[in-house]
Amino acid sequence: MKNKKLLFAIVTSILVILIIIGIIFFMHNSNSDENTSNQIIEYTPQEEFSDDEIRKTIISLYFKNIETNSLIAEAKCIDVKNLYEEPYTYLINLLIEGPESEKLESAIPEGTKVNSCTLKGNIVYADLSKEFIDNAPAGIEEESNIIYSIVNTLTELNEVSGVKFLINGEENLKFKDGKISFNEIFKKND
């Protein structure tokens, strides 16, 4: 009987120790859960972006469709830093360089150079070389494509609502056939 009492005392002691250990373990885990819920968990993306990729943006440049003779926007991915100093000159020069698609072509007359571009209010004053009018094909449709290739491209920028054209610093000139005059401010052609 003495053995039974001793065995009972040992089993009871072991059970009490296990219960105390369980309570301590439970209390320790609930405290650590509270601590982790207050911590900021940092997210690490699976793929890192390089500085060059972060600076990229997509712009729309308007070129003439060879088949339909109408203007179509071509998306181009550029480095944003190219838009910091002279964004309007940069965009017109991209139009002069031409599209990437073989189905499109630049509407800007060959030999045209950008003398300067200045934003006044929300209007860009684009001063272009005389080749802009001297080398332009005749006809209202061709001349419209030339004008609106530039206007539609520049007005994609939030700060631009229209374009005023100058030729070698002179205002109010016209294309050679006189159908389109530069005496007005051209707004986006929808």
Describe what you observe in this structure.
It is built from five helices and seven strands; from the N terminus they run H-H-E-E-H-E-E-E-H-H-E-E. The chain has 190 residues and is α+β, with helices and mostly antiparallel strands. The chain has one domain. The strands form two sheets. The chain has a four-stranded mixed β-sheet. The protein is rod-shaped and about 125 Å long.
The mean pLDDT is: 85
The end-to-end span amounts to 104 Å
In total, the number of strands is 7
- Any idea how many domains? 1
Rg of Cα set: 36 Å
Tertiary shape: rod-shaped
Topology:
Elements: H1 2-38, H2 51-54, E1 56-65, E2 71-79, H3 87-97, E3 104-105, E4 114-120, E5 123-128, H4 131-134, H5 140-154, E6 162-167, E7 186-187
Parallel strand pairs: 5-6
Antiparallel strand pairs: 1-2, 1-3, 4-5, 6-7
Helix pairs in contact: 3-5
Features:
190 residues, alpha+beta, four-stranded mixed sheet, three-stranded antiparallel sheet, 5 helices, 7 strands, 37% helix
Task: Write a brief structural summary.
The chain has helices at 2-38, 51-54, 87-97, 131-134, 140-154; strands at residues 56-65, 71-79, 104-105, 114-120, 123-128, 162-167, 186-187. It is of the alpha+beta class and 190 residues long.
